[in-house]
Amino acid sequence: MQSIIDDVRLLEFKEFGDERGHLVVAEGGDICPFNINRVFYIYGSDHDVVRGKHANRVTEFVLINVSGTSKVRVKDGRGGEKEFSLDHPHTGLYLPKMVWKEMYDFSADSVLLCLASEHYRSDEYIRDYDAFCQIVAEH
Ligand code: TYD
Fold first, then answer.
1. What is residue 1's predicted lDDT score, i.e. its pLDDT?
2. pLDDT computed for residue 139 by the predictor
3. Please, which of 23, 61, 76, 101 could form a disulfide with 52 given CB 3.0 to 4.6 Å?
4. Ligand 1 within 6 A of CB of 96
5. What is the count of structural domains for the chain?
């Protein structure tokens, strides 16, 4: 059976490196599959913290550890789940809408950059896992 987490995938961004250092480009509609309307970043999370724990009805995301490392667990609400490690500043994780996500195992130097397809609207976040499973089951 087709699962939403089959659409979750790692993206490799273009990296321009020379003797001056590195420059990575994330352009909307290119390797990042949506136009970017919002950027936020997460840092200073302790190793045992689990963030996220929500699904979005509308918004798609790309997560990039521009510094340090973290892990992302995704769930489809039907029993399917996968884990991804983010450990390169040129690697992103694409998250489609309606996927449950949990970010954890943050390194002390983790800076997790999040690109989002939509402006922030709290009412499109589903923050209760049982409610998410219920919504998935109804579709
Ligand atoms: P939250 O969704 O709990 O963060 P995470 O997904 O990492 O667990 O967001 C933390 C707070 O920040 C919450 O009060 C909502 C607010 N917030 C905004 O105002 N705008 C945003 O774009 C985001 C992502 C969060």
1. 78
2. 87
3. 101
4. no
5. 1
CATH number for 101: 2.60.120.10
Q: Which of 56, 70, 120 to mutate to test the pocket of ligand 1 (most atoms within 8 A of CB)?
A: 120
Interstrand relation of 100-104 and 70-75 (parallel, antiparallel or unpaired): antiparallel
Residue nearest ligand 1's atom 11 by CA: 122
Neighbouring CB atoms inside 10 A of 119's CB total 8
Write out pLDDT tens, residues 33-72: 999 999 999 999 999 999 999 999 999 999 999 999 999 9
DSSP H helices in the chain: 129-137
pLDDT, tens digit, for every residue of 87-125?
A: 999 999 999 999 999 999 999 999 999 999 999 999 999
Q: Token digits for 25?
A: 């480009």
Single-letter amino acid, residue 66: V
Are 117 and 124 contacting, i.e. CB atoms less than 8 angstroms apart? no
**Start-to-end Cα distance in the chain:** 14
- Amino acid letter, 106: F
User: pTM score, two decimals?
Assistant: 0.96
Centre of ligand 1 from the C-alpha of residue 16, in Å: 31
Q: Is the dihedral of CA 108, 86, 123, 50 positive or negative?
A: negative
